[in-house]
Amino acid sequence: MCPAPPATPAPPPAPAVEYRGKLSPASWMELPDWKREPLRPALEAFSRSCTALEKQDPWKAVCAGAQTLLPTANEAEIASFFEMNFDPHQVVNADDSTAGMVTGYYEPLLKGSRTRSPRFRYPLYGVPQDLLVIDLGSVYPDLKGRRLRGRVEANRVVPYLARGDIDKDPAPLKGLEIAWVDDAVEAFFLHIQGSGQVELENGERIRVGYAEQNGYPFRSLGALLIRRGEIPPERASMQGIKDWARRHPKRVQQFMNENPSYVFFRELPRELPGPIGSLGVPLTPERSIAVDPRVIPLGVPVYLATTWPNTPDPLVRLMVAQDTGGAIAGGVRADFFWGFGDAAGSQAGKMRQSGRMWVLLPKGYAPPVSVAP
Question: Number of C-alpha atoms within 13 angstroms, CB side, residue 334?
Fold first, then answer.
């Protein structure tokens, strides 16, 4: 009798999925100051989301309605559209609290060149060919959307190069430069913002956007400076961190290397109306937010109740979840996109407010099932 073939080994148990929060059914009456601000900009931003959402059955009808409404509708008609077609769900954190942090980001302008020179010596890299991206959902369905990044070394998958390894001399990624910029600190913050524009010496501008990442978790430079006693908490804004860096040029690279996360870019068409978010559509200034997609689905309208940067003045408006970020983790956690340039950067850099959030989902659409803690 022939021996039975060896059994195919089962895959190892899936890693635990971290519980980050849930969406809890709510009523329209719970949304503070609903209709206080114009809704048309949010409808326009949502219509951009529909280029991705309309392929999904639950979104086809509402996306078609939004496109029909967009050209001529007044504010009352737009409000009625949202109320008749969506149900609000309050975002709840893992600890059952309903308040969280709202920060800001923007699209900066850097000075740069296509070639290296004594002035322009800090590179913005494209995606390395040896960067391996493994879709964990192909092995563990519960980890859909999660990816493992690394590289192959001696037939083993090992972590990819960290920031300090990439930025050292000789440069291990030489030849992958999209452009060179004149300021290491501005380049570091471009990695955090995820997209930006580079003005070349001839006045031409190129737009770069997030393409990939080296697989390491984001570590906050501001939090590190606070822990080391370099700056007080009230100075941990983007402007405060940049000021510290200007005063400590010989130490700044050491501190930046404490954040091992490194972003690789791609060049984007200049004619785009805005940078491209994780959803794959252009972001809308003051209407797009970055969220944690493990709690809030990308593309959905989100009602945000927070305050203007460094003030108690209410900032309450309908936004659209169109982006993600390495530092954006948790249920009630948002990054508010302020737009392009210095004025947007001023608002983004000082924004660190408390806020609450409600997700709008099409009527009859069940919110994503959260993994129990």
Answer: 36
